[in-house]
Amino acid sequence: MDTLNHFNQQGEAHMVDVGDKSVTHRVAVSVGRIEMLSNTLEHIKQGTNKKGDVLGIARIAGIMGAKKTADLVPLCHPLALTKVGVDLEIQDEPPAVLCTATVETRGQTGVEMEALTAVQVTLLTIYDMCKAVDKGMRIEGVQVIEKKGGKSGDWKVAS
Amino acid sequence: MDTLNHFNQQGEAHMVDVGDKSVTHRVAVSVGRIEMLSNTLEHIKQGTNKKGDVLGIARIAGIMGAKKTADLVPLCHPLALTKVGVDLEIQDEPPAVLCTATVETRGQTGVEMEALTAVQVTLLTIYDMCKAVDKGMRIEGVQVIEKKGGKSGDWKVAS
Amino acid sequence: MDTLNHFNQQGEAHMVDVGDKSVTHRVAVSVGRIEMLSNTLEHIKQGTNKKGDVLGIARIAGIMGAKKTADLVPLCHPLALTKVGVDLEIQDEPPAVLCTATVETRGQTGVEMEALTAVQVTLLTIYDMCKAVDKGMRIEGVQVIEKKGGKSGDWKVAS
Amino acid sequence: MDTLNHFNQQGEAHMVDVGDKSVTHRVAVSVGRIEMLSNTLEHIKQGTNKKGDVLGIARIAGIMGAKKTADLVPLCHPLALTKVGVDLEIQDEPPAVLCTATVETRGQTGVEMEALTAVQVTLLTIYDMCKAVDKGMRIEGVQVIEKKGGKSGDWKVAS
Amino acid sequence: MDTLNHFNQQGEAHMVDVGDKSVTHRVAVSVGRIEMLSNTLEHIKQGTNKKGDVLGIARIAGIMGAKKTADLVPLCHPLALTKVGVDLEIQDEPPAVLCTATVETRGQTGVEMEALTAVQVTLLTIYDMCKAVDKGMRIEGVQVIEKKGGKSGDWKVAS
Amino acid sequence: MDTLNHFNQQGEAHMVDVGDKSVTHRVAVSVGRIEMLSNTLEHIKQGTNKKGDVLGIARIAGIMGAKKTADLVPLCHPLALTKVGVDLEIQDEPPAVLCTATVETRGQTGVEMEALTAVQVTLLTIYDMCKAVDKGMRIEGVQVIEKKGGKSGDWKVAS
Question: Which CATH code of 3.60.15.10, 3.20.20.370, 3.30.70.640, 3.30.70.360 fits the domain covering A24-156?
């Protein structure tokens, strides 16, 4: 399709009709990272092992965030998610935390927005918990990298 | 301060006590952008003028998102925001929409998280409305660029 | 049925059991209007064309409102809506904005409440955005006009 | 003021800055009614006395609805309400339930939207609980009738 | 199963995949009670009959609470509940209100959490409405007593 | 005071007027515990150290739950909390996890409900994460133990 389907013929926004789409197993995977000072990353690494588990809390926030997607994104359909997973990985050069979110449903519409929201809320929470030591952190590279199911079929980001 | 203040001595997370902080006028400005195919940007430009107002809807979503920050970010204090503004600007090379969010309050804690959340939800909404024509859009450069008020005083990102 | 089915034999409220109802295509259409000074309507008309898009924002609020129905109405079942559309029309005599909301689902219970909530939140948002120039606006004639699907079958308001 | 203040010079929507407004005692009173078949009103009357308390439930829904106003109305400021009251009165000719909501705060912005939302959610809930016996109910005459506090001072609807 | 299934092999929390589980009729029943001074119970009894219906309001809060379970419990799946019922019973010795919540769905995962949340919110609301006369009330014995449907089959608490 | 102040003279529920109460520093402390099989407690203990951090997740859920109190409890005032802390302690005989929540604000009304809600949501989350191995867990002894600030002054539960 080559048009923005959230608008009708008059250019007015609506929540598009998905009632005739088939219920299929749908998966979406999104990624993103938050770049920071190496000293900040050191705080996070120490926390994971012995106190102040920044990554554990951010992961929970991201999972809960995925469930709020239809509340945040105006024309997004509410969906009963069947799986949400958030993986976090530490990267040393440049210092950053990488986030990968995988969301699944059996439904009539895809879950890309839920996977993106999970990444965004996870990274926001890392910012919140580290901002006392590093206000200059930057969130970069938030994108969908893979999508399965639905009429448009499987898709992977070009690498 | 040099430690992650969302943890107590035992390394357990808590919502930090801001009750003794003074009520001051606080401002935070955040930015971010979503990069896309030039064809996608063309759809957005047309929409703004004549139908399908992607940017107008995204702006509203971002403002509403700012109000949900304490719902999304676990250790964030609920705040009565006094102002939220979201500005969007089209950039042609590379094709992108730039978002700047300004949030203000009179309160005991800063509004950086609210400004970041406004940017994130605005950009998520642009993704949602354009994903039928471009799944490969990327959100980049989400960061706080300025902050005023509070004990730590004014701050600007190093340029 | 001739009784208020949200109460059991003891007169205690409950969320009625819809688990045995069949999953059918359900549609509901609701309408309502907000009456205002002709000067206020003039502001709205100008905005739609060149700045300050009151109707575009109200439409988005109404769509998002439909998704919150089960949060607002105590005994309403949560539903995965498959379509929400909100149409707005300007009426000159008396000066008013007319709102029509259409909601669809494939589910075990109807979507009248969602269609009514969409109308109510749309009209509330128009009030909010125009109250600086006209506090006396009135919301009138909010009702369901049509309903399809479900055991009780199709229904239209008597005209 | 004679312009719609939710828009800036470029006609873009924002949540207006109330940070410089003074904190005053603010009150708003809204009304509205739901008209119905006399048989439906009879059901409600019986319920209030002996089982199935439609009005008691609707009143609670309206109070809770007032607290959700800033979630529903995009450019509404979040407010710490200090009082919410919802009164319901039965009217026989034409058969209807009349709702009056009074909301108060000590804050920098008015509570008209909260009072209107309380009325809307109260009446929606009555519709929900009676729709099994009367789909044709109509919500009429929802408006602010009185407002106190703030820079614009006291205001009453013209009678 | 003998492990905590909300964690993956690395011990990281996720929302478990229920996409392959079959859609069955699922029921859960939970109970709990709030113990109080006999004078407080007297206030509640009077209210039920003639004014101030504490139990009616608490029942509504519990039903609405069940709908918010996936918002409150981080790894809980969002579910379309088909029935929620909350029963309240007065017990004189020791003075207490007993709450029983029954929740049903047709879905891929159980509703124990929804039934527990309904009980908790019901009892919290009773506390709120009576705390002006009795701050020492205690919530006791909140547990699932019965569960039907799903792969693990029917279960009853050992008596 | 000797009456249930959430009702007016007619016995109708309302959110009581706190607008004339003074803004004071208010603190509430609540406790509660969840009793379980010793084998279940063993799972939790192992998780805290090496994988699957049940208590860390439950603590976050409790803190977020405190922020949702006014959404859950119908007549509760929305409040800007200045501190929320949740402490968890393992008790071996009988096997249980004890939860203590401390909530603070500077406001016109107390925070007992927020402290109770934090305990309830914390314990619900522990139930959720351990129910695969132990459906018979019981939540016991949820109560306010201390309260400071406000007109009624300081209060401690009788021991």
Answer: 3.30.70.640
